[in-house]
Amino acid sequence: MEKRVEYTLNKEQMKKLENVAGDFRNLMMQYECAMLEVQTKLEVLNKELAIKNSRNPFESIKCRLKSPESIFGKLERRGIDFSVENVEKNLNDIAGIRVICSFPDDIYMLVDCLTAQDDIILVEKKDYILNPKPNGYRSLHLILDIPIFLTEEKKHMRVEVQFRTIAMDFWASLEHHVKYKKDVPNPDTHIEEWLQDARLLYDDKRQMIYAFSEEDVLGYVYSISDQAWGMMVHDLAHPLPCFTDALAVTREDSDGKRRLVNMSDHTRCGDAPKALLVTR
Fold first, then answer.
1. C-alpha to C-alpha distances, 5 to 102, 110, 182, 198, 230, nearest whole angstrom
2. What is the DSSP letter of 264?
3. Nearest CA to 140 among 164, 106, 116, 120?
4. How far apart are CA 193 and CA 83, in angstroms?
5. Which pTM value belongs to this model?
6. Which of 12, 160, 192, 214 is catalytic?
7. How far apart, in Å, are the Cα atoms of 122 and each of 3, 88, 111, 125, 145?
8. pLDDT of 49-89, one tens digit each?
9. Do the beta carbons of residue 192 and residue 136 sit within 8 Å?
10. Residue 208, helix vs strand vs coil
């Protein structure tokens, strides 16, 4: 995953943008229309599948258009001059949608349903769920070509769609924060190693995910409902049983299967399962 840094336009870049302001605004409007088309398709699928399966296949959906600063920054890193034509020709993620699902099976079902529609062309698919990146990042990325219908033309635009589970989204957000934010203690910590050793706890009642390491008093807490997270200090002597309303997933037993464990059944610290409590 490419490093995200803050980028500010210089005077020369501001001038370039001002010179093509009308054309640039028009292009961004077209990307927004394409993004809304895909969002609508996903929401229709969500409603239909919720009735068929008695549950929603995804938890949330977020849409965003790349900012001018991000566009200039990405073109510059690729050694490409800024122009409206170069933006449309070289960047596939101007319009982006992130879909957060409960389970990996929901992701593949939604992808199959979406790409089967006859007005969508699948340009590219990258499955980082089956083939995670070396840093552990997992997600499924699609680049879709979809037509939009304007007053005087029909035009094909590209939209990037990322599918993640709640746990995958938590890990990606946590890694980015630990790696790049300035307010994190011990910034030299190797995040991949920390994440590999970390334990996760999913608190279903409070809709929270807790991440902590047995070798570090600092941990992280993520609110699923608010899609926000923060840091915490946990008690190493009692890291799990204090969350009595939570469900945990035990590490694989001798038969190779994982099992749900109700934490309220574990009244003594020694009874708490050593668990990877939410799988990535």
1. 30, 32, 12, 26, 20
2. G
3. 164
4. 41
5. 0.69
6. 160
7. 26, 17, 10, 7, 6
8. 999 988 889 888 999 999 999 999 999 999 999 999 999 99
9. yes
10. strand
